[in-house]
Amino acid sequence: MDFTIKSLDGKDAGQVTLADEIFGLEPREDILQRMVRWQLAKRQQGTHQTLGRAEIARTGAKLYRQKGTGRARHGSARAPQFRGGGKAHGPTSRSHAHDLPKKVRALALRHALSAKAKSGGLMIIDDLKSADAKTKGMVKNFADLGLANALIIGGAELDVNFSRSARNIPNIDVLPVQGINVYDILRRRTLVLSKAAVEALEERFK
Question: Which stretches does UniProt call biased (Basic residues) (predicted)?
């Protein structure tokens, strides 16, 4: 698949041939859904915790005698039915992460890249570099390129001036190619790849 490369100034900067096995697949929503669910579950903190009856600091003495009062047979004030008692079947601290095969994760990334290419939400820029770390100039460049909601993926090392000038712009995320992931690709309208990022992805999936 031939694709036009743009410069940060919005001008054409040549052509690149994208690998069909990475950018030309027919996207499968079920694989993308499994990957997004895996990512969100893995980053969930799982620190929710309530006190059970064994963790309540309260007397364990029997409330009153077993027989003769006409009342129910209670044995502890820590029971869940009493005010100040433990919570029955409450949440406990745990990990929400679950397994997803490595091959499925790799396939999901290729399907996410293909989905952006098919929907017209893919842009390739020759070099992500800036002469200075000025946000105002970067806002103008993005406006000329039509980028209002985008994930920008650079090479292994991001240009310091570029990342600093872009990090304060709303709805713009900048990541090195090692940080590319399905969830961030799908949550932004446009995926912007540098030439270095394209080469790194093709090398990764070779």
Answer: 65-76
Are 117 and 152 a contacting pair, CB within 8 Å? no
Query: Cβ contacts of residue 154 below 8 Å, gap of 6+?
Result: 128, 162, 163, 174, 175, 176, 177, 194, 196, 197
Q: Which pair of structure tokens corresponds to residue 168?
A: 């304060």
10-55 residue pLDDT tens: 788 888 999 999 999 999 999 999 999 999 999 999 999 999 999 9
> Do the strands 12-17 and 2-6 form a parallel or antiparallel pair, or are they unpaired?
antiparallel
Cβ within 8 Å of residue 25, ≥6 positions away: 110, 111, 114
pTM: 0.83
Hey, what CATH topology would domain 2-45+99-204 get?
Ribosomal Protein L4; Chain: A; (3.40.1370)
- Domain segments of the chain: what residues? 2-45+99-204, 50-90
pLDDT band with cut points at 50, 70 and 90 for residue 130: confident
Q: What is the amino acid identity at position 102?
A: K
